[in-house]
Write a structure and sequence with these properties.
Elements (H helix, E strand, L loop, with lengths): L1 H22 L11 E4 L2 H11 L4 E4 L14 H7 L4 E4 L6 H10 L4 E4 L20 H7 L9 H18 L4 H27 L5 E4 L5 H7 L2 E5 L10 H14 L3 E4 L6 H10 L3 E4 L8 H12 L2
Parallel strand pairs: 1-2, 1-3, 3-4, 5-6, 5-7, 7-8
Helix pairs in contact: 2-6, 6-7, 7-11
Length: about 300
């Protein structure tokens, strides 16, 4: 009898604690805001600045992961269900993973954020293999267009216009958020132009051709890549060409990426050719402003 009493008492205590946890003011509240999805971290940040507190902006591809090959986690599947809109870069960069999001949220509209942006064509020597190659054969456009602040501003304008169309009740909020963010990006652009103007070396080589928009906007020139075609190791002839480029421009650094840190490339440029290996990040962490600032500062060393 005594044991039964203790068992029943224990059950009642556990139940009471469970009720307290649900209603306790210190317990985390479930986010009931409507959901927007955005593919890569810089786009997530831009969307969040424009959407403000009205929407929950759910990232699709986490920082440090490749949008070309990323597979959604079970937790993401749950958080992306019911998304009302999906913002993407397009042009072969995030198409595959966004197709997975569409299957989870079939009612969501998909918005590619390139409207009003002059897209850069890849040269004949550049492209993407596997699932991306067909996209670039058809379109030939470089998808890394967010890597200039003027294009980042245009992306923010596109996001604001889209949200004003689907949620006109909060149109003034989106307009105010956009205006504040544009002011921040204008200040950033002035800062980056000043930093880039003092760069001791305007030519650079990188692991692959992701930097055309950034180079054009800030006065740099990408003169060689480790991967002539993204995802393919270079041939001996490619290496010889890179060595010639390094000598021609007196280069002292090679730029890799967090998503593409290859031990073979590091050994070649650091041990074999005596170059400093530096890291540029096209996708970055949680802040678009810090992403752009970090990349320009790294290139301008």
């Amino acid at each position: 009898m005594k044991n039964t009493f203790f068992i029943i008492t224990g059950i009642l205590v556990v139940a009471a604690l469970g009720v307290w946890a649900v209603f306790s003011p210190t317990s985390p509240a479930r986010d009931t805001r409507p959901v927007l999805a955005a593919s890569i971290p810089p786009l997530v940040d831009i969307v969040q600045h424009v959407a403000g507190d009205i929407w929950q902006v759910v990232p699709v591809v986490p920082a440090g992961a490749s949008p070309h090959s990323y597979a959604l986690s079970p937790a993401q599947v749950g958080s992306l269900q019911g998304a009302q809109a999906i913002f993407m870069i397009g042009h072969g960069l995030d198409d595959q993973v966004i197709d997975s999001v569409r299957r989870i949220a079939p009612e969501a509209d998909t918005a590619t954020v390139d409207s009003g942006i002059m897209l850069r064509e890849f040269g004949e020597e550049h492209g993407h293999e596997d699932e991306e190659e067909e996209e670039h054969e058809d379109e030939g456009f470089d998808p890394h267009y967010w890597l200039s602040v003027p294009n980042g501003k245009q992306i923010a304008v596109n996001v604001a216009q889209y949200l004003q169309n689907i949620d006109p009740e909060h149109s003034d909020v989106y307009a105010a958020n956009l205006a504040a963010y544009i002011e921040e990006l204008d200040a950033l652009e002035a800062e980056l132009q000043a930093v880039a103007s003092d760069a001791p070396q305007k030519h650079f080589i990188a692991v692959h051709d992701a930097w055309g928009y950034l180079a054009q906007q800030y006065g740099f020139e990408l003169v060689g890549t480790f991967e002539p075609v993204e995802g393919r190791e270079p041939s001996p002839a490619d290496i010889r060409e890179l060595e010639n480029v390094i000598q021609e421009y007196s280069l002292t650094a090679f730029y890799t990426e967090p998503q593409k840190q290859s031990s073979a490339a590091n050994r070649l440029f650091s041990d074999g050719l005596g170059l400093e290996v530096r890291v540029l990040d096209p996708e970055g962490g949680s802040s678009y402003v810090e992403l752009m600032r970090s990349n320009i500062q790294t290139l301008s060393r």
